[in-house]
Design a protein that fits this description.
The chain is an alpha/beta fold and 583 residues long. The protein is built from 22 helices and 21 strands. The strands form 4 sheets. Strands 1-2-3-5-7-9-12-14-17-16-15-18-19-20-21 form a 15-stranded mixed beta sheet, sandwiched between helices. A two-stranded parallel ribbon has the order 4-6. β20 (486-490), α20 (493-508) and β21 (514-518) form a beta-alpha-beta unit. α14 (308-317) packs parallel to α15 (339-349), α15 packs parallel to α16 and α20 packs across α21. The radius of gyration is 36 Å and the shape is elongated.
Length: 583
């Protein structure tokens, strides 16, 4: 304890002698008071020093933008952490209810959820409920609380769950008669779409669809049973701004008749986007009635799935002057005979669309697809005919003939320039003799044809017979496809011989034709020399049997792993269609 009151000669901190002397003579209580004062001074000095940091000198609005950028949706941990950095940040975070709205998480514990909900004050709310994300079991009670007490300030509500969950949540707000801010409402019942369950469709009460929602612009109901008349008589007058309607059903029992659907659509004059899946059918009364025309002047996108008859009746009754996208999935079935009527509806619905430059016709896995892949710069026209199974050969099948002729009659395809076709011989054999000629005569501006893994040999035969016609008195313009300049085909030797004959024949009548082949991973070798193949092809051209084929039935099939090629081709096509849908 020696030299206790001596001032160290090499102190690391320079202090005044008076202060050191005061410390030296002070008792324990006085030293405690000094330490408290020193701590307060240190905190004050640190805060003052921090005020010179760039982050502390940011304007309040810039700071808010940063918080919104780093804040993940439906998560409060980041807000808690940021609020502990400094007093200013905490004050800013607590005073901005929009941050707490973004962090609002239905899966949080009820007490904390209620506190976060309180901090949102009166700002409009957006809720996304997905039963798969309810890892705590609090989501349904929390959302029920919201629907009971705060439904009036909901702007967006998405509910995705099982039938019982949806009915519990929806029933909780039946006492509310208005939702003045609601703009987007989406209900997705996943019970119906699961093959392992037999749950029915979620019952949506009439009172829920009678809510006054003057700002509603988007309504999506999937796997839900509801009263179509209530939507027409109550929801429609109270939601005049509705521009997007999507109804997807998995059971036909909840579908509307065509007349009911048209009455509903007539109640929504502002519709721009309409999506219907198994949502309507043609009743006996529909077939006997003549529905009046329904004009949807603002509708730009129509996507639906139905039977052939119901789809034809819907398209025939709609007038769509602004349509830019038409996608239809049609269940053909073995007994369907209404392809011609359906294609007439397509022609009427698309009569004011911009001309499409491209068309792809493909058949595989009981799907017959025609679509215009316009690289997202042109309107969309896509028809998918599912369950297109081949009939008994003894029964006449005019479906494909009606489709090919119907495509040729669609006005928006008249100026088409690029055509891609991949059709097996079994489908082509169903065509009437003059079907391809009718098709090519109407789509005469085609300049490029590409053949897929399944080459349409009867289309090529039609072009060959046209090129071999008597040249006297026949002008170039009167022949089929006078603008055709190039054909692209798989690298199949027999097919190359056939196309070379076509190119020679067209060049002799003044219509030169370039031929390009798609390279193969491994070259295909034929057992016959080219001269023999050429002779067989010539005999086939002269054969009066229209539906015969030259040589072996596999000559014009790309057999480089035929099954996998077909699967790859349809997968690539369906991926393209999904990309268009996403946009």
């Amino acid at each position: 304890m020696e030299n206790l009151y001596c001032i160290p000669g090499s102190s690391p901190v320079t202090l005044s002698e008076e202060f050191l002397w005061t410390v030296a003579v002070a008792d324990a209580d006085e030293i405690d008071q000094m330490l408290q004062m020193l701590r307060a001074a240190t905190v004050y000095a640190s805060q003052w020093r921090n005020s010179f940091a760039p982050a502390a000198r940011l304007p309040g609005d810039v700071l808010l933008l940063i918080f919104e950028h780093v804040l993940p949706g439906r998560h409060t941990c980041v807000l808690r952490t940021l609020s502990q950095v400094c007093r200013r940040w905490r004050s800013t975070i607590l005073q901005v209810p929009l941050l707490w709205r973004k962090a609002l998480n239905l899966a949080d514990r009820t007490m904390w959820f209620s506190e976060v909900l309180r901090r949102t004050r009166t700002v409009p709310l957006e809720f996304f409920f997905d039963i798969a994300e309810d890892y705590t079991g609090y989501a349904i009670p929390n959302l029920t609380t919201v629907m009971n007490d705060h439904f009036w300030r909901c702007v967006s509500l998405h509910i995705e769950g099982y039938k019982e969950d949806i009915e519990e949540i929806v029933d909780s707000c039946i006492t509310m008669d208005k939702a003045p801010l609601l703009r987007r409402l989406s209900i997705h019942n996943i019970s119906c779409s699961l093959p392992s369950t037999r749950d029915g469709e979620a019952e949506i009460p009439d009172t829920f669809l009678s809510v006054l929602a003057p700002q509603l612009v988007s309504l999506h109901m999937e796997g839900c049973a509801f009263n179509w008349n209530i939507v027409c008589s109550r929801l429609a007058p109270r939601s005049p701004l509705l521009s997007s309607l999507c109804v997807r059903n998995f059971r036909i029992q909840s579908a509307a008749t065509v007349v009911q659907l048209l009455s509903l659509l007539e109640s929504f004059p502002s519709l721009k986007d309409l999506r219907l899946q198994n949502s309507f059918f043609s009743s006996e009364a529909d077939r006997n009635a003549r529905p009046r025309k329904v004009v949807l002047s603002q509708l730009t996108s129509l996507v639906f799935e139905s039977s052939t008859v119901a789809g034809a009746m819907l398209l025939a009754a709609l007038e769509l002057p602004s349509l830019t996208k038409l996608e239809a999935t049609i269940d053909v079935g073995p007994l369907s005979t209404d392809i011609h009527q359906f294609m007439e509806g397509v022609q009427l619905a698309t009569c004011r669309m911009v001309h499409l430059p491209y068309l792809y016709i493909y058949y595989g896995h009981h799907l017959l697809i025609m679509h215009s892949n316009h690289h997202h710069h042109f309107p969309t026209l896509q028809m998918t005919f599912k369950n297109w199974a081949l009939r008994d050969p003894a029964v006449p099948d005019t479906r494909f003939t009606d489709l090919i002729r119907g495509i040729a009659d669609v006005a928006v395809l008249r100026k088409m320039q690029d055509l891609k076709v991949s059709l097996p011989i079994s489908i082509e054999r169903c065509l009437s003799p003059g079907a391809w000629a009718y098709f090519l005569r109407h789509l005469k501006m085609i300049s490029f044809i590409s053949f897929g893994a399944r080459t349409p040999v009867f289309l090529i035969r039609t072009l060959l017979l046209d090129a071999f016609r008597d040249n006297e008195g026949i002008q170039v313009r009167s022949r089929l496809l006078p603008s055709l300049k190039q054909i692209s085909l798989p690298s199949i030797p027999e097919l190359k011989v056939l196309i070379d004959i076509l190119a020679d024949a067209r060049s002799q009548v003044g219509i030169p034709l370039a031929v390009s082949t798609i390279s193969r991973v491994r070259p295909r070798h034929t057992g016959l020399p080219p001269e023999v193949v050429r002779e067989i092809v010539w005999d086939w051209i002269a054969d009066p049997m229209v539906h015969s084929i030259p040589g072996d039935s596999t000559w014009f099939v790309d057999d480089e792993g035929t099954d996998s090629d077909e699967a790859d081709e349809i997968d690539e096509l369906l991926d393209d269609l999904d990309d268009i849908d996403d946009e």
